[in-house]
């Protein structure tokens, strides 16, 4: 019995030690179990009219911070009791977010702000408030990424520069709760996790991982260097000795009438292609004086459906064998070609060598977004000095919810379509999003994401999208193996530009896209012309 009591005592002591360690390593945590009033300060800036609500996550008794209205700017901030240094040991940034109504165009990222001595106030929190790190999902148009941006001060110039993580992971495309984790290590490494799974590993000081790099280039193009007036960049020039052949007719048309064509038998010369609809009647409320003379709408002439054609017959056009077009001299190598001019390189006055980033401390956590979507729920925001603490929170706060939501989603997918097609398509889309994150496809990530989003909106084109993505993959592999510069032809939407203040989820852009879609949906299809 004494032995059993000793084991219980040791277990209790270990549990207490773990709790104290968790408390010591937890710099900030908000579960939103209680209303946020008093802890979080809503911005008074006039642009930020979005209403925050303390709300339950759908299907759970767990509360979070809710974006409650569409097409609004939101800003809210929580000041930490003590600033958190990013220079001492590891730092873990973690939070949960759920797109309860899906996400077409909106951000759900957090900003980790510098001390207020940097020039900001909680009541005036906005997109200009200085931050150290911006982290979290963002999706709108061609933008689909989990941002990680470090705002770093160049020790020489004193200028703060936004350094964006290259090739960040994509945002999960469902309505489930997901947990985002950024682990900053003392060896300059940063790891990005989604749902506890590592999606990206990078080094703060590597030019391959951040754009622009934290360590500037040693040399830069001389801004005062000018291209000489006699510098010839033309690799090819028209042959000055070439002469147009005597038989070259520049006036010959590209097409001529086919003199051998014969009018098809049964062609109805006297029948129009369209006739008045005989079943149409003038509306009773039609007023000739106000509405003008009423005319019956036109319909296709039924007599033309069985005939080879109606109306005046004209010979079809064919390519003119004598056509040569405008003559131009053939190109030859330019004897004066000097190559593409570039300014000379000079030492970069802002160049500096770094052993570690000069991180600014985190004094507050803020959410400042512009979203076209409502139903975005934030929860369990954590800043810790130990990744084991973050892992513990994922296991106890996020995972139980996620498992329930996943099972519910699975049941809904199965009930939506008896053959399980929608569930299969969802799995296909999940795989395609992972394909888009493959490093050697990074050059084509935006095109691939655009194709996936089109397929999600129009499931009937899923097979075509898969084929298109396979073409991209095969083309890239061919280029890697055999060289060449030819790129796959993929239709794409213009990429949503990221402004310097990180408002990458442009509501105006989304509204323009919606208007274009409406125009496309309502435009009348042109009438098919009959072949002659």
UniProtKB/TrEMBL annotation:
Keyword Membrane: yes
Keywords, comma-separated and alphabetical: Calcium, Chaperone, Disulfide bond, Endoplasmic reticulum, Glycoprotein, Lectin, Membrane, Metal-binding, Repeat, Signal, Transmembrane, Transmembrane helix
Pfam families found in the cross-reference section: Calreticulin (PF00262)
Keyword Ion transport in record: no
GO CC, alphabetical: endoplasmic reticulum membrane
Family, similarity comment: Belongs to the calreticulin family.
Function comment: Calcium-binding protein that interacts with newly synthesized monoglucosylated glycoproteins in the endoplasmic reticulum. It may act in assisting protein assembly and/or in the retention within the ER of unassembled protein subunits. It seems to play a major role in the quality control apparatus of the ER by the retention of incorrectly folded proteins.
Protein name per UniProt: Calnexin
